[in-house]
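Reply to dn_fold:

You asked what the input looked like. This is it:
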Amino acid sequence: MTTVERCAIIIINFIFRGVEVAISYKKLWKMLIDRDMKKKDLQAAAGISSASVTKLAKNENVNTEVLQKICAALNCDIGDIMEMIPDNNQ
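and this is what came back:
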């Protein structure tokens, strides 16, 4: 089972338990800063669309294939680029 698949299972478990979570890609943006990369560099390296980069910037849902391409391009794990934040406003 890939890391992305494990992450998807965790999200599904949160949803079924009635706990809403928000996705944050702050770790991804920090990693790009640390590597002196711009969003356009990520787009080119991962082979993803500008629309996907825009969704990531807005902490919106993206296809798991996009996340896999980013992890492959940056040689990292899914937990290195995103995190799930429980919504405490319930």
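Residues 3-86 form a domain with the 434 Repressor (Amino-terminal Domain) fold (CATH 1.10.260.40).
Hope that clears it up.
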